[in-house]
Design brief:
The chain has three helices and six strands. The protein is an alpha+beta fold. A four-stranded mixed β-sheet has the order 3-4-6-5, sandwiched between helices. A two-stranded antiparallel sheet has the order 1-2.
Length: 136
């Protein structure tokens, strides 16, 4: 029961990342940010995940990830899921509007189907980016 994320996580030349990691300014880190998203945010339900998003005043998109121990028992698998989520966000963060995004992983029927999970996330990020382009 492992996630085949090694094939999905590719290096890119995105100026907003430091090496392979997203800078701290592009992550949600305060509990108050997560609470604000839980109370006021719009919700998108995807295949195996839930995304809450809300405008921010930072000038760039920020990401928060929640994968519970109840949903995914093994820490190795939880961390790979988080890496996949962060990587898809990192690839699209330049085109995204200035919003906070919190992704809550709900699980899928088949944990080995990382490509389907990745495609669903990529579609959401592309929709967010094109939605911004329509209004600006």
């Amino acid at each position: 029961m492992t996630f085949d994320a090694d094939k999905l996580i590719l290096a890119g030349n995105n100026p907003k990342h430091n090496g392979e990691n997203l800078k701290k300014t592009f992550r949600l880190r305060k509990a108050s940010d997560f609470v604000r998203l839980a109370k006021q945010a719009e919700v998108f339900k995807g295949r195996g995940f839930l995304i809450r998003y809300l405008d921010n005043w930072q000038g760039h998109a920020r990401l928060g990830v929640a994968v519970s121990k109840r949903t995914v028992k093994h820490a190795v698998v939880r961390n790979r899921i988080k890496r996949i989520i962060r990587e898809t966000f990192r690839k699209h963060c330049l085109a995204l509007p200035s919003k906070d995004y919190m992704i809550i992983y709900k699980g899928t029927q088949n944990l080995n189907d990382a490509s389907l999970f990745c495609r669903s996330l990529n579609r959401f990020w592309q929709h967010q980016a094109t939605h911004l382009a329509v209004y600006t």
